[in-house]
Specification:
Blueprint: H1 8-12, E1 18-25, E2 29-36, E3 39-46, H2 58-61, H3 69-77, H4 80-103, E4 111-115, E5 118-122, H5 142-161, E6 164-165, E7 174-177, E8 180-183, E9 190-191, H6 198-213, H7 225-234, H8 257-281
Antiparallel strand pairs: 1-2, 2-3, 3-5, 4-5, 6-9, 7-8
Helix pairs in contact: 3-4, 5-6, 6-7
């Protein structure tokens, strides 16, 4: 096929040898099958921000840091340079998450390289050596559904133990490889300890798994792994070896109104200080 313009720099640099075909086009990127060093791999080409249907919601970008103070100020002001910096940070978030999770043993594609807005990574294949299908394109027996659900819950735990929440996990971004499910699409992954929305995102990720696999194994609809996992994480009791029950009993406590108001006051003070720093930096 004709080499897409965005892949030409990788050919010029010798990072890829040939482009075989387009594998898919999603809301945030186009994925191609390419040859690299004698290996068949994927090249994920991120779409420009104005061509994506998925927006960088503040819930996802909260607490993402940049070491460059000029970039930080530009991102806060929303200048053209700032928007470019935010785009670069958005793309690198997936790269960082992939390397972090692969090192932790999470079932994600093996990252290979990142160059000019293109991520090279392992091509996940099925038992026949073809590109693995997405979870939503398959159907399962109750036994298979329970097994895949258990595998993915373990991977969610392994991710959280590594400090990461996927943030958009569903049947649409899980591949079924020859040896089981593989989690993909991580540009919206968040730091579990640094994002105030992490717990809600994790519960939503787990709920998506429950609802999908519950279509094949209805007993899974009665489970509550999400809140159980987060409660153990908050207490420092979660590890990849933790045995889960799928049950959660919430203990309700009286609201400390004074503490709530104190948190609100602290937030107001932090915002006032941030605005003052921005004013002084101009």
């Amino acid at each position: 096929m004709k080499t897409p313009d965005r892949l030409k720099p990788l050919l010029d640099e010798g990072l890829i040898d040939a482009v075989q075909r387009q594998l898919m086009s999603g809301k945030e990127a186009q994925v191609y099958v390419v040859q690299s060093g004698g290996e068949t791999v994927c090249a994920k080409v991120y779409k420009e921000a104005n061509n994506r249907s998925f927006r960088q919601a503040v819930d996802y970008t909260e607490n993402r840091k940049t070491k460059n103070s000029r970039q930080a100020r530009a991102m806060a002001k929303g200048t053209k340079f700032g928007r470019q910096a935010m785009e670069a940070a958005w793309q690198s978030a997936e790269v960082d998450a992939l390397y972090r999770l692969a090192a932790a043993g999470v079932r994600v594609p093996r990252p290979i390289n990142f160059h000019e807005g293109v991520l090279l990574m392992e091509l996940v294949c099925d038992a026949n050596g073809d590109a693995a299908p997405r979870l939503n394109d398959m159907s399962f027996t109750p036994e298979e559904a329970r097994a895949h659900h258990a595998t993915l819950i373990r991977e969610v735990v392994r991710m959280l133990a590594a400090g990461v929440v996927h943030g958009d996990l569903s049947e649409f971004n899980i591949l079924v490889g020859a040896d089981g499910p593989v989690i993909i699409d991580l540009p919206q992954a968040v730091d579990a300890a640094g994002n105030n929305h992490a717990s809600a995102m994790l519960e939503r990720d787990v709920a998506n798994l429950r609802h999908y696999f519950g279509r094949f194994a209805p007993e899974l609809l009665k489970t509550d792994f999400g809140r159980e996992i987060w409660a153990l994480y908050e207490k420092g009791l979660l590890s990849p070896e933790t045995v889960l029950t799928g049950q959660f009993a919430q203990v309700l406590k009286p609201v400390d109104l004074g503490q709530v108001l104190a948190v609100i006051d602290d937030a107001k003070d932090e915002e006032a200080a941030r605005r003052l720093r921005m004013t002084e930096a101009r």
